[in-house]
Task: inverse folding
C-alpha cells in the first residue's frame, strides 16, 4: 500500500491518483479539512511526530504494510530571509517530517527487503529559489537527507527517491505572488502535476534517486557544479531581471 502526505492537493493528489490507477491501495495524509483521495484519508499535521506515528500505525493496521511512502507535504514560506516562524515551519516540514517518517517506515521496509521512500524536495534544493532563503535552504536539506537515506538503506532492498521539479501547476504556485511566478516561468515550463507523478512512478521502476521531470534541471546543476561563481553571476542577473 502507498502513503502520500500532502495528498489533498497538487503533486500529492496526482501521486495518490496515479498509484490508485495502477491498482495500489492508497492512504493520504493532509491537514485537517483538506481531504485527499484513497481508501483512507487522515487529517493531521505531519510535523506533529506523535500524530504522524499514530497515522502510520493506523494505515498499517487497516491496509497492511507500507510499500511506498511519499513524504511530499511542503510549504512556500518566507520572502527573502524570512522570519523565525518561516524557518521553523520550513525546517519542520522539509526536513523533520521526512526524518520522522523515515524512522517510522524504513526499518520495517529494510527488514522485508522491499519498499520505496520518496521525498519531494524541489529544484530549489539543488539550485535556488531566489525569492526565499528558508525554502531554498530547507529543500537542500531534503535532498541531502534523501542521499543519506539512499546510502544507509540502498543495499537493504529499499529504493530511496528524491523528487526535484521546477514549476508545477498547483495551488502552491497559483497562490504565490507575482515575483515567484515570474521566477518559475523564467526557469522553464510549468508542468502538470500528473506529468510529475508519472516521472516518480518511472523512477520507482528504474531505481534512480533523483527525479527531475524538467530535464533542464540536470543541466543547470551540472553548470553550477562546474563553475559556482559563473552560476552565481547568472543567478544575480536573473534576480535583477525579476
Ligand atoms: N508546485 C511547484 O512548482 C513545486 C515545485 C517544486 C517542489 N514542490 C514541492 O512539492 C510538494 C507539493 O507541493 P504542491 O505544489 O503540490 O503544493 P500544494 O499546496 O498544492 O499541496 C501541498 C499540500 O500539503 C499540505 N500540507 C502543508 N502543510 C502540511 C502539514 N503540516 N501537514 C500535512 N499536510 C500539509 C497542504 O494542505 C496541501 O494539500 C511540496 O513539498 C513543494 O515544496 C512544488
Result:
Amino acid at each position: 500500500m502507498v502513503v502520500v502526505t500532502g495528498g489533498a492537493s497538487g503533486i500529492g493528489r496526482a501521486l495518490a491518483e496515479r498509484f490508485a490507477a495502477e491498482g495500489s491501495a492508497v492512504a493520504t495524509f493532509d491537514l485537517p479539512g483538506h481531504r485527499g483521495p484513497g481508501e483512507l484519508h487522515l487529517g493531521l499535521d505531519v510535523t506533529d511526530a506523535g500524530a504522524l506515528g499514530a497515522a502510520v500505525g493506523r494505515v498499517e493496521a487497516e491496509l497492511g504494510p507500507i510499500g511506498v511512502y511519499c513524504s511530499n507535504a511542503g510549504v512556500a514560506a518566507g520572502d527573502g530571509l524570512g522570519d523565525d516562524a518561516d524557518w521553523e515551519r520550513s525546517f519542520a516540514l522539509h526536513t523533520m517530517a521526512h526524518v520522522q517518517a523515515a524512522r517510522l517506515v524504513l526499518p520495517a521496509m529494510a527488514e522485508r527487503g522491499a519498499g520505496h521512500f520518496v521525498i519531494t524536495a524541489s529544484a530549489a534544493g539543488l539550485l535556488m529559489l531566489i525569492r526565499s532563503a528558508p525554502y531554498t535552504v530547507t529543500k537542500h536539506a531534503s535532498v541531502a537527507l534523501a542521499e543519506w537515506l539512499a546510502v544507509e538503506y540502498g543495499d537493504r532492498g529499499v529504493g530511496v527517491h528524491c523528487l526535484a521539479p521546477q514549476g508545477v501547476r498547483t495551488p502552491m504556485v497559483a497562490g504565490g505572488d507575482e515575483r515567484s511566478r515570474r521566477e518559475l516561468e523564467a526557469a522553464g515550463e510549468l508542468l502538470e502535476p500528473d506529468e510529475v507523478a508519472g516521472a516518480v512512478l518511472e523512477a520507482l521502476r528504474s531505481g534512480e534517486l533523483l527525479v527531475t521531470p524538467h530535464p533542464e534541471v540536470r543541466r543547470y546543476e551540472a553548470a553550477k557544479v562546474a563553475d559556482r561563481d559563473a552560476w552565481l553571476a547568472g543567478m544575480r542577473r536573473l534576480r535583477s531581471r525579476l
Remarks:
- The pocket of nicotinamide-adenine-dinucleotide is lined by residues 5-6, 8-12, 29-31, 34, 45-47, 72-75, 93, 120, 122, 165, 167-168, 170-173 (CB under 6 Å).
